[in-house]
Amino acid sequence: SAVISQKPSRDICQRGTSLTIQCQVDSQVTMMFWYRQQPGQSLTLIATANQGSEATYESGFVIDKFPISRPNLTFSTLTVSNMSPEDSSIYLCSVMTVLSGELFFGEGSRLTVL
Amino acid sequence: AQSVSQHNHHVILSEAASLELGCNYSYGGTVNLFWYVQYPGQHLQLLLKYFSGDPLVKGIKGFEAEFIKSKFSFNLRKPSVQWSDTAEYFCAVNGGNTGKLIFGQGTTLQVKP
User: Fold this and answer.
1) CA pair distance A62, A60, nearest whole angstrom
2) In whole angstroms, how far apart are CA A22 and each of A19, A35, A108, B44, B68?
3) Chain B nearest CA to A98, separation (Å)
4) Would you call A103 and B103 a contact, using CB atoms and an 8 Å cutoff?
């Protein structure tokens, strides 16, 4: 299994500001992903975090709004830029392990934008 | 494009009742299928998964699911639910082993004691 630590676990932010969420994994993983879970809704994939290169974004998500970094195999960050109340969500980091190919999720970062 | 549809949005059962949650997906190739559970205030946890082999898979806490390829379905079952099974259940598909999960809308299960 993989233990995923996300920081912050929750935050309240003002409109127009930016917040960076960190994801640290305790083992080497092949793939890292960022998901969003809006209130009362399911999970939507934002992007695949690629080590040492630009992330691959899903339809409807762009780098200017959600810049992502992945400097090494075990760490990634997601920034939510120029936030609005519509960005209030839980943001989850997910990883696929090398050995099992199984996907694991972090506990998520609950973001509230006022 | 891949998609996942969960038929039941909100299910209410009494303890000891049997459970079946429907899940259908659309994808023409090889798929990996998952059921995740999210207990109130907690993070997602994997209930069970199907990669290949026996289409009837058993997971944690007495849950099982059956992959029926001809019906593009992966329904979740439990013979006798408990109050502690109250949670949100998500079906997900990973087509082509890309690692990217597409989630269904989720089903809220409420078990009355």
Assistant:
1) 7
2) 10, 13, 10, 18, 39
3) 11
4) no
Inter-chain CB pairs, A–B, below 8 Å? 46
| Coil/strand/helix, residue B106 | coil
Q: Which of A44, A96, A106 sits opposite B99 (nearest CB)?
A: A96
Contacts of B49 in chain A (CB under 8 A): 102
A107 interaction partners in chain B (CB closer than 8 Å): 42-43
How far is A30 from A51, CA to CA, in rounded Å? Answer: 9
B34 touches chain A (CB under 8 A): yes
Cis peptide before A8 (omega within 30 of 0): yes
Interface check for A92 against chain B (CB to CB < 8 A): the answer is yes
Task: Tell me how far apart the alpha carbons of residues B88 and B9 are, in angstroms, rounded to a whole number.
Answer: 9
Structure tokens belonging to residue B37: 């559970």
Q: For chain B, how are helix, strand and coil distributed in percent, rounded to 5? A: 10, 55, 40
The residues, any chain, with a CB within 8 Å of residue A55's CB and separated by 6 or more, are A47, A48, A49, A63, A68, A70
Express each pLDDT in B68-98 by its tens digit. Answer: 999 999 999 999 999 999 999 999 998 776 7
Contact between B82 and B74 under an 8 Å Cβ cutoff? The reply is: no
Half-sphere exposure in the Cβ direction for B7 (13 Å, CA): 9
**Each residue's pLDDT tens digit, A19-43:** 999 999 998 777 899 999 998 888 9
Q: What does A6-34 look like in DSSP terms, one character per residue?
A: EE-SEEEE-TT--EEEEEEESS-EEEEEE
